[in-house]
Amino acid sequence: MKRNKTYGRLYDFGLLKMVKLMPIAIFIMYISLSTTFAGSLYSDQTKLSLNMKNVRVEEVIDKIEKSSEFFFMYNKNLIDVDRRVDIKVEEKSINEVLESVFRNSDISYSIKDRQILLINTRIAGEPSESATQQQKSVSGKVTDGSGASVPGVSVVLKGTTTGTVTDTDGKFSIPKIQSGSVLVFSFIGMKTQEVTVGNKTTVNVVMEETAIGLDEVVAIGYGTQKRKDLTGAFGQVKSEELTKTAVVGLDQALQGKIAGVQVTSNSGEPGGSVSMRIRGVGSINSSNEPLYIVDGVPYGSLNAINVNDIDRIDVLKDAAAASIYGSRASNGVVLVTTKRGTKGLTITFDGSAGVQSVAKKLDMLNGTQFATLAQENLVNAGLPANPAWSNPATVQNNDWQSKVFQTAPMQNYNLSISSGGEKSSTLFSFGYLDQKGIIVASDYQRYTVRLNSDYNITSKLRAGITVNGSFTKKNSVSSASDFSGILNNALSMQPTSPITTDQTGLFGLKADGSVDPTGNTYYGWNGYSFTTRFANINQYPQGLNNPYYTKKFYQSSPNKSQEILASAFAEYEVIKGLKLKSALNITFGRGYSENYQAASPNAITQVGEFRTLSGYSEGWSQSDQVNLVNTLAYAKSIGNHNISAVVGMDAQKYNYRSVNVNTSGVPDDQHSINASENATRVASGYPSQSALLSYFGRVSYDYNGKYLFSGTIRRDGSSNFGPANQYGVFSSASVGWRISQENFMKSFELINDLKLRGSYGTVGNQNIPSFKYLSTYGSDGGTYQYTIGSNQSIVNAIYQNNVGDPNIHWEKSIQTDIGFDLAIMQSKLTLTADYYIKKLSDLLGYFPVPSYTGVYGSSVLKNGFSMENKGLELTLGYKQKIGEVNFSANANFATLDNKITKLTDNQAAYVTQGISLNNHDGGAVTQTAVGGRIGNFLGYLTDGIVQTAAEATASPLGGLSPGDRKYKDVNKDGIINASDKVVLGNGLPKYTFGLNLNAQYKSLDLSVFFNGQAAVQIANMLRASFTDMRYNNSTGIINGYSELMNRWTGPNTSNTMPRNIYTAPISNDWFSDAYIQDGSFVRVSNVQLGYTLNQSLLGKLGISHVRFYVSGQNLFTFTKYTGYDPEVGSNGQNGLQTGADFGRYPLARMVNLGVNVKF
Questions:
Q1: Sequence-separated (6 or more) residues with CB below 8 Å from residue 985
Q2: Smaller CB count within 10 Å for the chain: N or C?
Q3: Where are the alpha helices (DSSP H) in 91-187?
Q4: Do 173 and 197 belong together in one domain?
Q5: How far apart are CA 257 and CA 243, in angstroms?
Q6: Does 1059 fall in a domain?
Q7: What is the CATH number for 54?
């Protein structure tokens, strides 16, 4: 088809009134502005100039489309576009142009804004030549696969010229036809269909598209371009694809949709963050997130954007596509275009509600197994046995995981109102999300509101405004730190320990979850007294918080944030084809956080004994960003030569400030920093500001759509660098050849479109902390103090806390890309392929500062690293109709090969800022070295289990006994030490893929989406904790994996699991390949089944569309990984901390029921 409680002190900022009044104000603006500018459309204000002689009508149509935003719809079988005409007009309206072209012909036209429908009036009105026996009228409606009306479809009585075309609502009516007649439905780009009338008087048809719209518009940064003219590497996801997923975050909705774009959840908690990587890691110590642009405005995160507000997402992957953003484009660019208002009034409501649950629980020892092994663990070490475990068959069996996880509800509602008149269009939307977490005490609420308005003020001047508000409240729980957090505590708890007071009378929570008034708020320990407990301290872990108590009373961390964007633009057509546009964007952000931590319950048997102090903190933050963009764009066509260009400037200023107050010694029931005069308070703050000034230009040229060229240049000035290095220049060039238009390709009828592409360019990264080129001083909240004066007053010391490097400068990325776009079989089958090489240099890293300098802190940030990413990206699409079933499939596949090519100062390896393990060979377990991949896991190779005393004596690692773990002496020097560590794997997947299947049968539609990764390893740090019953290699016994039942108990009983003994050597837990697992997986990410009600049932109610659906997310995961989830994400935004699983918040399995209604 050819178609183109309150929010606390935060409201001291005056935001509360704004929040309350905003919906009312926006609604008033919506009504008043829409009525004020009700008037003409684009068609009334646009003037065209043409001078063409003896050309085909089709050439005139193409010329109009290229020099304007008009697009034509017509049936080539009914419209004679080969007729030759002469036309000469100067600054005429589209009506006057079309009148000149189609004068003295049978062609009429209908103009709806930018859409022009051509109609053959002779065919539409010609009487039937068939017999008139059993004649009747037949009417109906034509829609596409998404249920949208299709205007301009030719409906002809087969074998005759009698027929009509569908109107702008897709409706048609043909009088006086016979019952046995056959209607033929045809349209350019859609499969022709034949329907026998029979006894029917109503015939509704769903047309199947057979071609990808090459005339579709793609956002390219500071402008748009037709897909067929693109020469860079792009990816696009449309709104209909986004709404067929159950996710509530826009970044998650991109997961697996675009080749070379990896989206990974860092946490499964509601409102949790994700990591997005475009063509791999782009920086070592800086953020690897792409630049997010929403309607031309830079955004920090997409969490604040409502998925239902999105029209499309365009991803710029290579330098040619992204270099228009210069120093911010090293990690790629994500351009989000939101929906705008359309002519008429449309009200859309989408609501869904569902439940979430944990997809998998870990297989831990039950009560009987634990008692058996715990007793064995003590006895094997010669420690006193625990009488409570003497009869394993009678101990309690408590599943602590079930006390942490819950079945959690969620609901999501969205309302939008679209209105348009002759001179204006407006869209207003409101969204509400309420999502409870699958871990109790975690939840997320979000309110979003958006207003997009556009005004055609005169024939040359148009303007628009956007107001977007996002208001969130999030409660978090600690779940993913180094062997701590609520999940680790739940896994660690002894299953024989009571959960509530009612089980033993010792634990300080009743069965209903309320606090025991006696104050007995420690875990309870199977009848052991306080004294006995600590006399046998090795038998119960110290410092381990009860997760059941923690999640309800011990700790709360609510965070609230508000973000408001106000944007306005004006565009003026100076002369024909030359447009000046100016946009002002202002973003306000406010944040408030608090954290309450009650007195630790883990050492209390009587009120006040061994009680730690309660702690409470509050934090405030505010940010504002002002962005001014001015562009001058020009487009001109001269014969078959088409040229467009844009130049502009982009200025941005950002300010941020935060204040935090930590208080200890507050009463348990007083959540305030002023709750006690005797409380200890420490205040800290952090200010930051940055500015960016840029000048840019881009020129694009094509000859008849066959030979294509685009060039871009940008000069950025950033305050993040010193005076000598503030400015950088970035450029790119790309070419394309639509080889399918060459004469020698005409014989290849199978090929509908084939375009070859190539590009080369440079981009940069200036996304580093501000003022790192300066040395700074601070007090750091009292880290260092000294006494002064006769009364020895304690004051905070001022000291140097950062060593600056005045020579730090831009990180650079040089990218080369070659690819092609192919469409065959009437464009039913499409393939896009790209191969890229991405060379990164001058990457920033932290390096040690000698201790003799006296500088607090141990590293300085400077340039010096080099790295290379290269890979292949494939995207395959297929559409077909099988009987009455419309079917489509879209698949993508990408490879990634990452290699470090240089380290600063010619270092052999870099371990700073990587992943470290305390008490597990105590140090870094990742290494970045020349020739290797970034963040490689580094550890020992196991060599089985020592089976005999003689074997222990012969081991190069001293101090071993039968049953202990052996390691390979890699360098054959007779000693096991750090020199024997080798690369064990890497957390960056070499292969990622996605598959989206869609089918529609009559009113039923089904979509299934798969995604996955392969050739990737995960460091399962949970195994480091729970294959050894000694708590964190410290004191106390914890629960363990059920696989401990397969431990070594004597010669040849096991060669993988060491002996079970409290005094096992620390080497048994050294980081090794025992903790590295295959992280490959295939996931059924989303399944949605929908049913659309027959429109004939709805018309009388004034409803145009009703669709019910059931959706499931994260339903099944096929993997060998034994942890909660193989999608472990990153422990930080830099590229050094990927692939380690410490027990983070797992992804939820979700099932939703929903309805979509349009009026």
A1: 936, 937, 1016, 1017, 1019, 1076, 1139
A2: C
A3: 94-101, 121-125
A4: yes
A5: 13
A6: no
A7: 3.55.50.30
